[in-house]
Amino acid sequence: MKEITGKLIVISAPSGTGKTTVVKKLLQQSTNLEASVSFTTRKKRENEKEGLDYFFVSEKTFTNMIQNDDFLEHATVFGNFYGTEKKSVSENLKEGVNVILEIDWQGALQIKSSMPSCVMIFLIPPSKEVLLARLKNRGTDSDQEIAYRFNQAVLDLEQSNKFDHVLVNDQLEKVVTEIGLCIEGKANKINQSKKVAESLKSFFETN
Ligand code: 5GP
To answer: Of 72, 109, 127, 194, which is least surrounded by CB within 10 A?
Structure first.
């Protein structure tokens, strides 16, 4: 069997942290990096494309995939199923291609236990206000959904200390450079910089 030579990079962040933009930028700048396209039972948003943003499937298909052991990880997020298919990830890794997964913390922890050599990164928003503004500006979710996602974000932030690297997404270029260093193994595994601590404080002090 061919040896795995690519690196698996896992990026998690509360909804609205801007991780999709960060991952897009990383992909533009890297020649040897592929994003895994997840499967989900969530409804497709207007601006999304099948096979590019997600593979949108029924609950029945998703459940069959679980039974067939097709997933590297899967989790329920905001009441919908999300999962990373094993096949394409392992094919890329065997070809020496680095693979990035943009998944929630539950899935990230599953990956960590099955593939401990993965690079685990948690992105956090600079502050409560910035997160709320980002959730609203996206313009794709109802007020109720925004409030739900915001409350969930605060809960998700409590998981950040389980990750190797915690970075504040305050400036796109900077955070992309920092992630690059984490991928290359040039960043210390620090998950409590002063900036991170300040951002987390802004969420937990008033909640
Ligand atoms: P959204 O519905 O906004 O696209 O994503 C909701 C959440 O599901 C985000 O935190 C996103 O990272 C996460 N997610 C997307 N794909 C996967 C996946 O394959 N597995 C897991 N565990 N979470 C995922």
So the answer is: 194
